[in-house]
Please model this.
Amino acid sequence: MTVKGWCPGAWRPMMSGDGLIVRIRPRLARLTAGQTLGLCALSRSHGNGIIDLTSRANLQLRGVSEDRHEDLLQALFDLDLIDATADGEARRNIVTTPLWAKSDLTTRLHAAILQALPDMPRLPAKMGIAIDTGIGPVLSDTPADFRFERSKNGLILRADGAPMGKPVTEADAPAALTDLTNWFVATGGPTAGRMAKHLETNELPATWRDTPPAAPGDRLQPGDNTYGAAFGSIDASALAALIRDSQASALRVTPWRLFLLENAQPCAPHGFITDPTDPLLHIHACPGAPACASATVDTRQLARQLAKPGLHVSGCAKGCAHPRPAPTTLVGNNGAYDLVENGHPWDAPRQRGLKPDDLLTPAS
Model:
């Protein structure tokens, strides 16, 4: 099994079974209507017409051929959707709460941190920053290593894996982030690769863990111009039709397989999920075979047929779609499925070698 040590980007894509995966990190997780329509067109012309929503509120084009990658980069740059250099892209690994407003704390912090990034030490590629500064945190389950959150009395910076953080002001927030990244590097954090793993064996200074975050906020749900995509997979043609029919001015991406349209008019959902109880919003499945070279089984067709809360169908033991425990996990293994109960995809299975008919036939 090959485990990749980085997340795909635009400048540094990752090869999968259906071609290159090219990730776009929209600033503040927002694309204008023009950018969205441009991205949909590029997905169809340079990829396979599928756009993924990621767990870090990014977008991925799938099925891009290597010989078209350079042309795609230029087109994405012309749309102002990528950085001018690979280094700039690698450093700008920031996720923001989707419910920000113009010139609010979230947008001001985002701008200040972008300016400070070049002065920070180089970090492992998967490390990122969360600006989770709404009324209450909503990104606690979203991958990030340095978390700006509100507390009862103000703003804190919290290291992921620590239950409490350090009070900061808006003015000194970038400097505090630089200090925390320097502590991570100086204490050997790059060897661990992620902050939470590093804190398993290294204790933060007491001043960095004395203030709890505010109580969690409410996450978005489908409805009121918020749409869900089963498995986070978007048909580019359907999204383009929704943008045009709704006359939306912009799109915001979330980490929860949902996207939000700004100033949208009521229209048909074009196949996107609008019911918060739809079971497809609450199950996980990676693209599976043949889209992923590591997978030996179909995943999403079976997941749709089984569709029950707590289900994870993984094409292999890496568990990319949901690298966490689930009540029921089906793991692809040499063309069949292994059953893991209340565990990770890589845990020991309770049953091996199950075929789709075994899983779809009700127990007698």
Summary: Residues 14-87+221-262 form a domain with the Sulfite Reductase Hemoprotein; domain 2 fold (CATH 3.90.480.10). Residues 1-5 have pLDDT under 50 and may be disordered. The first strand starts at residue 14 and ends at 16. The first helix runs from residue 33 to 46.
